[in-house]
């Protein structure tokens, strides 16, 4: 019985360790993906390919990139790649 408790405790400790080590890795991957989406959106925006820029910026914004959120607001305010939408621009 004591052996079962020890095994369960070690298993629980292992799960905690995996969770603690995995969280920073997942955050780093998200940040990298957000940065890549931002970069891709910037390339499309410079080419005035607003439809593709919008998609890339939406991905970056959904991953927490504040610059992408700002540019999306501008795109909705100016109608770049989308219909003018003042409410969406403010979000």
What attributes does this structure have?
single chain, 91 residues, mainly alpha, 4 helices
Radius of gyration, rounded? 21 Å
Order of helices and strands: HHHH
SS-based class: mainly alpha
Oligomer: single chain
Q: Mean pLDDT across all residues, rounded?
A: 78
Low-confidence sequence ranges: 23-28
Number of helices: 4
Helix content: over 70%
Strand content: under 5%
Number of strands: 0
Alpha-carbon distance between the termini? Answer: 57 Å
* General form: elongated
Q: Please outline the major beta sheet.
A: none
Question: How would you portray this structure in words?
Answer:
By secondary structure, the protein is mainly α. Helices cover 84% and strands 0% of the residues. The protein contains four helices and no strands. Helix 1 packs antiparallel against helix 2 (50-62) and helix 2 packs antiparallel against helix 3. The longest helix is centred in the N-terminal third of the chain and has 45 residues, at 2-46. The protein is elongated, with a radius of gyration of 21 Å. Mean pLDDT is 78; it is low at 23-28.
Can you describe this structure in just a few lines?
This protein has helices at residues 2-46, 50-62, 66-78, 86-90. With 91 residues, the chain is mostly helical.
What topology emerges from the helices and strands here?
Blueprint: H1 2-46, H2 50-62, H3 66-78, H4 86-90
Helix pairs in contact: 1-2, 2-3
